[in-house]
Amino acid sequence: EAADIVKAAQAGAVFQPNSSQQLSAIIAELMGNEPLRREMGRNGARYVQSNFDAVQSRAAMTALLETVSVG
């Protein structure tokens, strides 16, 4: 789930669906905290580099598309 990845990576903030109050509070906090925004950005980039591989992802997507197109 996306929220789990965001939490694990410490790369963003998570809020309850349809909670405009939570979302606006998070936006206000981030607008006033450039160091936190930069840290979250670095954390997100680090997480992607450590957990995702373009070659493997491409191979998995190709295999999936081939399976679907045969059916």
Topology:
Layout: H1 2-9, H2 20-31, H3 34-51, H4 54-70
How does this model look, in words?
By secondary structure, the chain is mainly alpha-helical. The protein has helices spanning 2-9, 20-31, 34-51, 54-70.
Q: What attributes characterize this protein structure?
A:
mainly alpha; 77% helix; 71 residues; 4 helices
Summed up, what is this model?
The chain has 71 residues and is mainly alpha-helical. It has helices spanning 2-9, 20-31, 34-51, 54-70. The chain is built from 4 helices and no strands.
Runs in which pLDDT lies below 50 for 5 or more consecutive residues are none
Shape annotation: elongated
Taking the sheet with the most strands, its summary is: none
Beta strand count: 0
Question: Roughly what fraction of the amino acids lie in strands?
Answer: under 5%
Radius of gyration: 17 Å
- Output the number of helix runs: 4
Topology pattern, helix = H, strand = E: HHHH
Distance between the termini: 28 Å
The overall pLDDT average reads 93
Structural class: mainly alpha
Helix fraction, binned, reads: over 70%
